[in-house]
Amino acid sequence: MKAIITVVGRDSKGIVAGVSGKIAALGLNIDDISQTVLDEYFTMMAVVSSENHLDFTTLRDDLTQFGKTLNVKINIQSAAIFDAMHNL
Family per UniProt (predicted)? Predict the structure, then answer.
């Protein structure tokens, strides 16, 4: 399983540490990561993977709830969506 995680919100300390810790706790590996601060807003995109088949609804719910604790919006999408778009 391969997925894309995005994180957006007002910049504050601990976002990368918190999100990467949550990703690990969910059993996902970070394959690639990019983050920047645009004006006062933090943005991050991570490509994650797992050898296990994980339920995206559960992952999305867990990440959404966790994002609230950091005051950011976290989303996860299957990389298969992006692969399919390029094959059209």
Answer: Belongs to the UPF0237 family.
